Amino acid sequence: MFFVVACLLLSAAMPSIARAEANDRIPQIERFIQEQQELSKIPGISVVIVEKGKTVYQKGFGYADVKTKTKVTPHTLFEIGSTTKAFTALAILQLEQKGQLKRSDDVRSYIPWLELKYNGELQSITLDQLMHHTSGIASNTIVKIPESKADNALELTVRTLLDQPLNRKPGSSFEYATINYDVLGYVIERVTKQPYDLYIKQHILDPIGMKDSYAGLHQLQSGAIATGYKLGFMKEQAYNAPEYRGNIPAGYIVSNSNDIAKWLQLQLGQISTREIEQYLIQQSHEPDLSVEPFDQNTHYAAGWGVQHGSGQSYLLHTGENPTFSSYFILKPDEQVGVAILANMKSSFTTAIGQGVMNIWEGREAANRHADSYQQLDQILTYILAAIAAIGVLLLLLSVRVISMTIRKQRINRPLNLKRALWINLHTLSVTIVILLLIKAPNMLLGGVTWGFINVWAPTSVAALFYSLLALSAIYYIYIMLLILTRKPR
Protein backbone atom coordinates (compact mmCIF):
# COMPACT_ATOMS: atom_id res chain seq x y z
CA MET A 1 0.00 0.00 0.00
CA PHE A 2 2.81 2.39 0.92
CA PHE A 3 4.52 1.64 -2.40
CA VAL A 4 1.35 2.46 -4.38
CA VAL A 5 0.84 5.75 -2.50
CA ALA A 6 4.51 6.67 -3.03
CA CYS A 7 4.21 6.01 -6.76
CA LEU A 8 1.06 8.12 -6.99
CA LEU A 9 2.72 10.99 -5.13
CA LEU A 10 5.81 10.73 -7.31
CA SER A 11 3.81 10.70 -10.53
CA ALA A 12 1.81 13.72 -9.36
CA ALA A 13 5.04 15.56 -8.61
CA MET A 14 6.69 14.74 -11.94
CA PRO A 15 5.14 17.62 -13.95
CA SER A 16 6.29 20.07 -11.27
CA ILE A 17 9.78 18.57 -11.31
CA ALA A 18 9.87 18.77 -15.11
CA ARG A 19 8.74 22.42 -15.03
CA ALA A 20 11.36 23.24 -12.39
CA GLU A 21 14.09 21.63 -14.50
CA ALA A 22 12.93 23.56 -17.55
CA ASN A 23 12.88 26.81 -15.58
CA ASP A 24 16.46 26.13 -14.45
CA ARG A 25 17.55 25.51 -18.03
CA ILE A 26 16.04 28.67 -19.53
CA PRO A 27 18.35 31.19 -17.76
CA GLN A 28 21.31 29.04 -18.82
CA ILE A 29 20.05 29.01 -22.42
CA GLU A 30 19.60 32.78 -22.41
CA ARG A 31 23.07 33.41 -21.01
CA PHE A 32 24.55 31.09 -23.63
CA ILE A 33 22.68 32.81 -26.51
CA GLN A 34 23.66 36.29 -25.31
CA GLU A 35 27.33 35.26 -25.03
CA GLN A 36 27.32 33.73 -28.51
CA GLN A 37 25.47 36.70 -29.99
CA GLU A 38 28.09 39.08 -28.63
CA LEU A 39 30.91 36.94 -30.01
CA SER A 40 29.28 36.46 -33.41
CA LYS A 41 28.15 40.09 -33.92
CA ILE A 42 24.76 38.79 -35.14
CA PRO A 43 22.34 41.73 -34.74
CA GLY A 44 19.12 39.74 -34.22
CA ILE A 45 18.24 36.17 -33.25
CA SER A 46 14.86 34.46 -32.84
CA VAL A 47 14.70 31.22 -30.85
CA VAL A 48 11.91 28.69 -30.41
CA ILE A 49 11.83 25.34 -28.59
CA VAL A 50 8.95 22.89 -28.92
CA GLU A 51 8.40 19.79 -26.85
CA LYS A 52 5.60 17.22 -26.89
CA GLY A 53 3.16 19.38 -28.80
CA LYS A 54 3.83 22.66 -26.98
CA THR A 55 5.99 25.72 -27.54
CA VAL A 56 7.99 25.64 -24.30
CA TYR A 57 10.31 28.57 -25.04
CA GLN A 58 10.27 31.44 -27.50
CA LYS A 59 12.23 34.67 -27.44
CA GLY A 60 13.89 37.30 -29.61
CA PHE A 61 17.39 38.61 -28.94
CA GLY A 62 18.81 41.84 -30.29
CA TYR A 63 17.56 43.86 -33.23
CA ALA A 64 15.64 43.21 -36.42
CA ASP A 65 16.98 46.61 -37.48
CA VAL A 66 19.98 48.10 -35.72
CA LYS A 67 19.48 51.62 -37.09
CA THR A 68 15.88 51.96 -35.85
CA LYS A 69 16.47 49.79 -32.75
CA THR A 70 13.55 47.55 -33.79
CA LYS A 71 13.67 44.47 -31.58
CA VAL A 72 13.25 40.88 -32.73
CA THR A 73 9.85 39.41 -31.83
CA PRO A 74 8.13 36.08 -32.60
CA HIS A 75 6.52 37.89 -35.57
CA THR A 76 9.82 39.08 -37.10
CA LEU A 77 10.35 37.48 -40.52
CA PHE A 78 13.69 36.00 -41.63
CA GLU A 79 14.91 34.29 -44.79
CA ILE A 80 15.50 30.72 -43.62
CA GLY A 81 18.09 29.71 -46.24
CA SER A 82 18.61 26.04 -47.03
CA THR A 83 16.20 24.83 -44.36
CA THR A 84 13.76 25.66 -47.19
CA LYS A 85 14.83 22.41 -48.88
CA ALA A 86 12.70 20.27 -46.56
CA PHE A 87 9.58 22.15 -47.74
CA THR A 88 10.43 21.50 -51.40
CA ALA A 89 11.17 17.83 -50.71
CA LEU A 90 7.85 17.47 -48.88
CA ALA A 91 6.05 18.92 -51.91
CA ILE A 92 7.71 16.28 -54.14
CA LEU A 93 6.59 13.50 -51.77
CA GLN A 94 3.10 15.00 -51.71
CA LEU A 95 2.90 14.99 -55.52
CA GLU A 96 4.15 11.40 -55.58
CA GLN A 97 1.38 10.40 -53.17
CA LYS A 98 -1.13 12.06 -55.50
CA GLY A 99 0.26 10.00 -58.40
CA GLN A 100 1.54 13.04 -60.31
CA LEU A 101 5.19 11.93 -60.35
CA LYS A 102 7.58 9.23 -59.16
CA ARG A 103 10.87 9.87 -57.41
CA SER A 104 12.44 7.06 -59.44
CA ASP A 105 11.65 8.93 -62.68
CA ASP A 106 14.36 10.48 -64.82
CA VAL A 107 14.20 14.26 -64.46
CA ARG A 108 13.95 14.47 -68.27
CA SER A 109 10.44 13.02 -67.97
CA TYR A 110 9.48 16.46 -66.70
CA ILE A 111 12.24 18.68 -68.14
CA PRO A 112 13.08 17.03 -71.52
CA TRP A 113 15.82 19.53 -72.44
CA LEU A 114 17.81 18.99 -69.21
CA GLU A 115 20.50 16.75 -70.71
CA LEU A 116 23.52 16.55 -68.40
CA LYS A 117 26.77 14.72 -69.07
CA TYR A 118 29.50 13.04 -67.04
CA ASN A 119 32.82 12.48 -68.84
CA GLY A 120 31.10 13.37 -72.10
CA GLU A 121 28.33 10.77 -71.71
CA LEU A 122 24.65 11.64 -71.23
CA GLN A 123 23.38 10.58 -67.78
CA SER A 124 20.03 9.61 -66.31
CA ILE A 125 19.30 11.53 -63.09
CA THR A 126 16.31 10.65 -60.93
CA LEU A 127 14.26 12.99 -58.76
CA ASP A 128 15.39 10.90 -55.79
CA GLN A 129 19.05 11.61 -56.60
CA LEU A 130 18.32 15.33 -56.83
CA MET A 131 16.59 15.16 -53.46
CA HIS A 132 19.52 13.37 -51.80
CA HIS A 133 22.30 15.41 -53.49
CA THR A 134 23.62 12.36 -55.34
CA SER A 135 22.81 13.71 -58.82
CA GLY A 136 26.45 14.44 -59.64
CA ILE A 137 25.76 18.17 -60.01
CA ALA A 138 28.76 20.10 -58.69
CA SER A 139 28.50 22.24 -55.56
CA ASN A 140 30.06 25.24 -57.32
CA THR A 141 27.07 25.52 -59.69
CA ILE A 142 25.68 27.97 -57.10
CA VAL A 143 28.04 30.58 -58.59
CA LYS A 144 26.03 30.76 -61.82
CA ILE A 145 22.58 31.15 -60.28
CA PRO A 146 21.38 34.40 -61.90
CA GLU A 147 20.15 37.46 -60.06
CA SER A 148 16.56 37.75 -61.25
CA LYS A 149 13.07 38.88 -60.24
CA ALA A 150 11.52 37.52 -63.44
CA ASP A 151 8.56 35.12 -63.44
CA ASN A 152 10.68 32.57 -65.34
CA ALA A 153 13.69 32.92 -63.01
CA LEU A 154 13.46 29.27 -61.93
CA GLU A 155 13.78 28.05 -65.51
CA LEU A 156 16.71 30.44 -66.05
CA THR A 157 18.45 28.94 -63.03
CA VAL A 158 17.96 25.35 -64.22
CA ARG A 159 19.22 26.25 -67.71
CA THR A 160 22.59 27.31 -66.25
CA LEU A 161 23.31 23.58 -65.77
CA LEU A 162 23.33 22.92 -69.51
CA ASP A 163 26.90 24.15 -69.97
CA GLN A 164 28.23 22.60 -66.76
CA PRO A 165 29.37 18.94 -66.74
CA LEU A 166 28.48 16.68 -63.83
CA ASN A 167 31.15 16.31 -61.18
CA ARG A 168 30.52 12.59 -60.58
CA LYS A 169 28.36 9.75 -61.80
CA PRO A 170 24.75 10.07 -60.61
CA GLY A 171 24.00 7.90 -57.59
CA SER A 172 27.66 7.20 -56.81
CA SER A 173 28.25 9.60 -53.90
CA PHE A 174 27.03 12.67 -52.05
CA GLU A 175 27.86 16.22 -53.11
CA TYR A 176 25.77 19.05 -51.72
CA ALA A 177 24.62 21.30 -54.55
CA THR A 178 21.90 23.80 -53.69
CA ILE A 179 20.68 23.92 -57.31
CA ASN A 180 19.44 20.30 -57.02
CA TYR A 181 16.44 21.71 -55.21
CA ASP A 182 15.88 24.45 -57.77
CA VAL A 183 15.55 21.66 -60.35
CA LEU A 184 13.00 19.96 -58.07
CA GLY A 185 11.17 23.26 -57.74
CA TYR A 186 10.98 23.55 -61.52
CA VAL A 187 9.67 19.98 -61.71
CA ILE A 188 6.91 21.03 -59.31
CA GLU A 189 6.03 23.88 -61.67
CA ARG A 190 5.96 21.59 -64.72
CA VAL A 191 3.80 18.96 -62.98
CA THR A 192 1.30 21.27 -61.27
CA LYS A 193 1.10 23.89 -64.05
CA GLN A 194 1.43 26.65 -61.47
CA PRO A 195 4.34 28.69 -60.07
CA TYR A 196 6.38 27.01 -57.35
CA ASP A 197 5.72 29.76 -54.83
CA LEU A 198 1.93 29.51 -55.21
CA TYR A 199 1.96 25.72 -54.91
CA ILE A 200 4.06 25.81 -51.72
CA LYS A 201 1.90 28.54 -50.20
CA GLN A 202 -1.38 26.77 -50.98
CA HIS A 203 -0.42 23.14 -50.36
CA ILE A 204 2.32 23.27 -47.70
CA LEU A 205 2.43 26.54 -45.76
CA ASP A 206 -1.27 27.39 -45.43
CA PRO A 207 -2.47 23.86 -44.52
CA ILE A 208 0.05 23.77 -41.65
CA GLY A 209 -1.17 27.17 -40.46
CA MET A 210 2.01 29.02 -41.49
CA LYS A 211 -0.05 32.03 -42.56
CA ASP A 212 2.76 34.56 -42.09
CA SER A 213 5.28 32.59 -44.18
CA TYR A 214 6.05 33.08 -47.86
CA ALA A 215 7.86 31.30 -50.67
CA GLY A 216 10.12 34.09 -51.88
CA LEU A 217 10.55 37.78 -51.14
CA HIS A 218 8.18 38.74 -53.97
CA GLN A 219 5.28 37.14 -52.04
CA LEU A 220 5.81 39.30 -48.96
CA GLN A 221 2.74 41.18 -47.79
CA SER A 222 4.33 42.44 -44.59
CA GLY A 223 7.04 44.90 -43.70
CA ALA A 224 8.04 42.81 -40.71
CA ILE A 225 11.08 41.19 -42.35
CA ALA A 226 14.32 41.84 -40.51
CA THR A 227 17.08 43.88 -42.12
CA GLY A 228 19.80 41.58 -43.44
CA TYR A 229 23.42 42.09 -42.39
CA LYS A 230 26.87 40.95 -43.43
CA LEU A 231 30.01 40.95 -41.36
CA GLY A 232 32.54 43.61 -42.28
CA PHE A 233 35.39 45.35 -40.46
CA MET A 234 34.54 43.35 -37.32
CA LYS A 235 30.94 44.58 -37.02
CA GLU A 236 27.55 44.16 -38.67
CA GLN A 237 27.00 45.94 -41.98
CA ALA A 238 23.50 46.36 -43.43
CA TYR A 239 23.46 44.91 -46.94
CA ASN A 240 20.73 44.81 -49.56
CA ALA A 241 21.37 41.43 -51.18
CA PRO A 242 20.30 40.73 -54.79
CA GLU A 243 17.07 38.83 -55.32
CA TYR A 244 17.45 35.25 -56.58
CA ARG A 245 13.91 34.30 -57.44
CA GLY A 246 15.25 31.28 -59.31
CA ASN A 247 16.73 29.93 -56.07
CA ILE A 248 13.56 30.03 -53.93
CA PRO A 249 13.04 26.22 -53.74
CA ALA A 250 16.54 25.82 -52.31
CA GLY A 251 16.75 28.72 -49.92
CA TYR A 252 14.22 31.52 -49.86
CA ILE A 253 11.20 30.69 -47.74
CA VAL A 254 10.56 33.64 -45.41
CA SER A 255 9.14 32.82 -41.98
CA ASN A 256 9.11 33.67 -38.28
CA SER A 257 9.47 31.68 -35.06
CA ASN A 258 5.68 31.48 -34.59
CA ASP A 259 5.28 29.64 -37.89
CA ILE A 260 8.49 27.63 -37.61
CA ALA A 261 7.18 26.23 -34.30
CA LYS A 262 4.29 24.73 -36.32
CA TRP A 263 6.75 23.33 -38.87
CA LEU A 264 8.72 21.63 -36.07
CA GLN A 265 5.51 20.22 -34.58
CA LEU A 266 4.60 18.80 -37.99
CA GLN A 267 7.99 17.06 -38.19
CA LEU A 268 7.51 15.64 -34.68
CA GLY A 269 4.08 14.21 -35.50
CA GLN A 270 2.11 16.69 -33.40
CA ILE A 271 0.35 18.28 -36.39
CA SER A 272 -1.17 16.59 -39.41
CA THR A 273 -3.49 17.75 -42.17
CA ARG A 274 -5.47 16.12 -44.94
CA GLU A 275 -2.85 17.40 -47.42
CA ILE A 276 0.17 16.39 -45.36
CA GLU A 277 -0.17 13.03 -43.66
CA GLN A 278 2.35 11.78 -41.14
CA TYR A 279 3.30 9.03 -43.55
CA LEU A 280 4.82 11.69 -45.83
CA ILE A 281 6.72 13.25 -42.94
CA GLN A 282 8.17 9.87 -41.98
CA GLN A 283 9.19 9.30 -45.59
CA SER A 284 11.00 12.65 -45.64
CA HIS A 285 13.08 11.53 -42.65
CA GLU A 286 14.35 8.35 -44.33
CA PRO A 287 18.06 8.82 -45.15
CA ASP A 288 19.80 7.63 -48.31
CA LEU A 289 22.05 4.85 -47.01
CA SER A 290 23.24 3.84 -50.49
CA VAL A 291 26.14 6.32 -50.29
CA GLU A 292 28.73 7.20 -47.67
CA PRO A 293 27.63 9.65 -44.94
CA PHE A 294 28.36 13.30 -45.74
CA ASP A 295 29.32 14.01 -42.12
CA GLN A 296 30.10 11.92 -39.05
CA ASN A 297 27.25 9.37 -38.74
CA THR A 298 25.04 11.67 -40.82
CA HIS A 299 23.20 10.77 -44.03
CA TYR A 300 20.96 13.00 -46.11
CA ALA A 301 17.20 12.50 -46.27
CA ALA A 302 14.62 14.76 -47.95
CA GLY A 303 15.92 18.17 -46.96
CA TRP A 304 17.15 16.88 -43.59
CA GLY A 305 20.41 15.54 -42.28
CA VAL A 306 19.79 12.39 -40.22
CA GLN A 307 22.39 11.83 -37.51
CA HIS A 308 22.71 8.55 -35.63
CA GLY A 309 25.18 7.75 -32.90
CA SER A 310 25.52 6.68 -29.25
CA GLY A 311 21.88 5.68 -29.12
CA GLN A 312 20.80 9.20 -30.16
CA SER A 313 19.02 10.22 -33.34
CA TYR A 314 18.62 13.78 -34.62
CA LEU A 315 17.18 15.56 -37.65
CA LEU A 316 19.04 18.73 -38.53
CA HIS A 317 19.78 21.25 -41.25
CA THR A 318 21.62 24.54 -41.61
CA GLY A 319 20.47 27.44 -43.75
CA GLU A 320 22.67 30.28 -45.01
CA ASN A 321 21.85 33.14 -47.36
CA PRO A 322 24.02 36.22 -47.98
CA THR A 323 22.47 38.10 -45.04
CA PHE A 324 20.49 35.49 -43.08
CA SER A 325 21.06 32.10 -41.47
CA SER A 326 19.03 29.44 -39.67
CA TYR A 327 19.40 26.11 -37.94
CA PHE A 328 16.77 23.49 -37.14
CA ILE A 329 17.46 20.45 -34.97
CA LEU A 330 14.94 17.86 -33.77
CA LYS A 331 15.07 14.81 -31.54
CA PRO A 332 12.00 12.79 -32.57
CA ASP A 333 12.35 10.19 -29.80
CA GLU A 334 12.00 12.90 -27.16
CA GLN A 335 9.59 15.03 -29.21
CA VAL A 336 11.89 18.05 -28.93
CA GLY A 337 12.73 20.61 -31.60
CA VAL A 338 14.87 23.76 -31.65
CA ALA A 339 14.95 26.48 -34.33
CA ILE A 340 17.30 29.46 -34.58
CA LEU A 341 16.72 32.33 -37.04
CA ALA A 342 19.31 35.08 -37.50
CA ASN A 343 19.68 38.18 -39.69
CA MET A 344 23.34 37.60 -40.52
CA LYS A 345 25.13 34.80 -42.37
CA SER A 346 27.11 33.10 -39.62
CA SER A 347 28.05 29.56 -38.60
CA PHE A 348 27.42 30.73 -35.02
CA THR A 349 23.72 30.21 -35.80
CA THR A 350 24.34 26.46 -36.05
CA ALA A 351 26.53 26.48 -32.94
CA ILE A 352 23.80 28.30 -31.00
CA GLY A 353 21.17 25.76 -32.09
CA GLN A 354 23.33 22.81 -31.11
CA GLY A 355 24.18 24.48 -27.79
CA VAL A 356 20.53 25.18 -26.96
CA MET A 357 19.62 21.55 -27.67
CA ASN A 358 22.51 20.36 -25.47
CA ILE A 359 21.43 22.56 -22.57
CA TRP A 360 17.80 21.50 -22.94
CA GLU A 361 18.91 17.88 -22.73
CA GLY A 362 20.99 18.61 -19.61
CA ARG A 363 24.42 18.65 -21.26
CA GLU A 364 27.09 21.32 -21.51
CA ALA A 365 27.08 23.68 -24.48
CA ALA A 366 30.37 24.30 -26.27
CA ASN A 367 31.44 27.93 -25.85
CA ARG A 368 34.44 27.93 -28.18
CA HIS A 369 33.03 28.20 -31.67
CA ALA A 370 35.05 29.83 -34.46
CA ASP A 371 33.45 31.27 -37.59
CA SER A 372 35.83 31.16 -40.57
CA TYR A 373 34.25 34.29 -42.09
CA GLN A 374 34.74 36.16 -38.83
CA GLN A 375 38.39 35.12 -38.67
CA LEU A 376 38.91 36.10 -42.32
CA ASP A 377 37.22 39.45 -41.75
CA GLN A 378 39.44 40.18 -38.75
CA ILE A 379 42.65 39.38 -40.67
CA LEU A 380 41.54 41.43 -43.70
CA THR A 381 40.62 44.40 -41.51
CA TYR A 382 44.20 44.60 -40.29
CA ILE A 383 45.59 44.09 -43.80
CA LEU A 384 43.32 46.85 -45.13
CA ALA A 385 44.58 49.20 -42.44
CA ALA A 386 48.16 48.49 -43.60
CA ILE A 387 47.20 48.96 -47.27
CA ALA A 388 45.50 52.24 -46.42
CA ALA A 389 48.65 53.46 -44.64
CA ILE A 390 50.86 52.51 -47.61
CA GLY A 391 48.39 54.10 -50.02
CA VAL A 392 48.29 57.36 -48.08
CA LEU A 393 52.09 57.43 -47.94
CA LEU A 394 52.42 56.88 -51.71
CA LEU A 395 49.72 59.46 -52.36
CA LEU A 396 51.52 62.06 -50.21
CA LEU A 397 54.80 61.28 -51.98
CA SER A 398 53.07 61.70 -55.36
CA VAL A 399 51.60 65.04 -54.29
CA ARG A 400 55.03 66.11 -53.09
CA VAL A 401 56.62 65.28 -56.48
CA ILE A 402 53.85 67.16 -58.33
CA SER A 403 54.23 70.14 -55.98
CA MET A 404 58.00 70.18 -56.48
CA THR A 405 57.52 70.04 -60.25
CA ILE A 406 55.13 73.01 -60.15
CA ARG A 407 57.66 74.97 -58.07
CA LYS A 408 60.44 74.02 -60.52
CA GLN A 409 62.23 72.03 -57.80
CA ARG A 410 61.86 69.06 -60.17
CA ILE A 411 61.97 69.25 -63.96
CA ASN A 412 60.67 67.03 -66.74
CA ARG A 413 63.06 64.52 -68.20
CA PRO A 414 63.08 63.75 -71.93
CA LEU A 415 61.99 60.24 -72.84
CA ASN A 416 64.88 58.00 -73.89
CA LEU A 417 65.24 54.25 -74.44
CA LYS A 418 66.15 53.49 -70.83
CA ARG A 419 63.19 55.41 -69.42
CA ALA A 420 60.86 53.91 -72.01
CA LEU A 421 61.95 50.45 -70.91
CA TRP A 422 61.31 51.34 -67.25
CA ILE A 423 57.85 52.66 -68.13
CA ASN A 424 57.01 49.52 -70.10
CA LEU A 425 58.31 47.26 -67.34
CA HIS A 426 56.23 48.96 -64.64
CA THR A 427 53.16 49.14 -66.89
CA LEU A 428 53.45 45.41 -67.58
CA SER A 429 54.00 44.61 -63.89
CA VAL A 430 50.97 46.61 -62.71
CA THR A 431 48.82 45.17 -65.52
CA ILE A 432 49.77 41.61 -64.49
CA VAL A 433 48.97 42.36 -60.85
CA ILE A 434 45.54 43.77 -61.79
CA LEU A 435 44.75 40.79 -64.05
CA LEU A 436 45.80 38.36 -61.30
CA LEU A 437 43.53 40.19 -58.84
CA ILE A 438 40.60 39.93 -61.24
CA LYS A 439 41.23 36.25 -62.01
CA ALA A 440 42.26 35.19 -58.47
CA PRO A 441 38.85 33.80 -57.30
CA ASN A 442 38.42 31.75 -60.46
CA MET A 443 41.96 30.33 -60.23
CA LEU A 444 42.02 29.71 -56.47
CA LEU A 445 38.38 28.83 -55.75
CA GLY A 446 37.33 26.86 -58.80
CA GLY A 447 35.13 29.11 -60.88
CA VAL A 448 34.10 31.61 -58.21
CA THR A 449 33.72 35.21 -59.42
CA TRP A 450 34.21 38.54 -57.67
CA GLY A 451 30.50 39.17 -58.18
CA PHE A 452 29.68 36.06 -56.15
CA ILE A 453 32.23 37.00 -53.47
CA ASN A 454 30.82 40.51 -53.28
CA VAL A 455 27.39 39.06 -52.42
CA TRP A 456 28.35 36.19 -50.10
CA ALA A 457 31.62 37.14 -48.40
CA PRO A 458 32.27 39.75 -45.67
CA THR A 459 32.38 43.31 -47.00
CA SER A 460 36.08 43.45 -46.12
CA VAL A 461 36.86 40.96 -48.93
CA ALA A 462 35.46 43.24 -51.63
CA ALA A 463 37.15 46.18 -49.91
CA LEU A 464 40.49 44.34 -50.17
CA PHE A 465 40.00 43.89 -53.92
CA TYR A 466 39.25 47.56 -54.56
CA SER A 467 41.98 48.69 -52.15
CA LEU A 468 44.60 46.66 -53.99
CA LEU A 469 43.41 48.07 -57.32
CA ALA A 470 43.64 51.59 -55.91
CA LEU A 471 47.07 50.92 -54.39
CA SER A 472 48.31 49.59 -57.75
CA ALA A 473 47.10 52.75 -59.50
CA ILE A 474 48.69 55.06 -56.89
CA TYR A 475 51.97 53.13 -57.04
CA TYR A 476 51.96 53.34 -60.85
CA ILE A 477 51.37 57.10 -60.80
CA TYR A 478 54.15 57.62 -58.25
CA ILE A 479 56.65 55.56 -60.23
CA MET A 480 55.76 57.38 -63.47
CA LEU A 481 56.32 60.73 -61.75
CA LEU A 482 59.75 59.59 -60.57
CA ILE A 483 60.75 58.29 -64.00
CA LEU A 484 59.56 61.34 -65.92
CA THR A 485 60.92 64.03 -63.58
CA ARG A 486 64.17 64.77 -61.75
CA LYS A 487 65.81 67.35 -59.52
CA PRO A 488 67.69 69.99 -61.51
CA ARG A 489 71.47 69.68 -61.43
Automatic annotation (TrEMBL):
Signal peptide region: 1-20
Top-level taxon of the source organism: Bacteria
Ranges for domain Beta-lactamase-related: 30-346
Subcellular location, principal: membrane
Transmembrane helix listed as a keyword: yes
Organism of origin: Paenibacillus ihbetae
Cellular component, GO annotation: membrane
Keywords per UniProt: Hydrolase, Membrane, Signal, Transmembrane, Transmembrane helix
Compartments reported by the entry: Membrane
Molecular function per GO: hydrolase activity
SUPFAM superfamilies reported for this sequence: beta-lactamase/transpeptidase-like
Keyword Lyase in record: no
The protein's name in its UniProt record: Serine hydrolase
Bilayer-crossing regions: 379-399, 420-440, 460-484
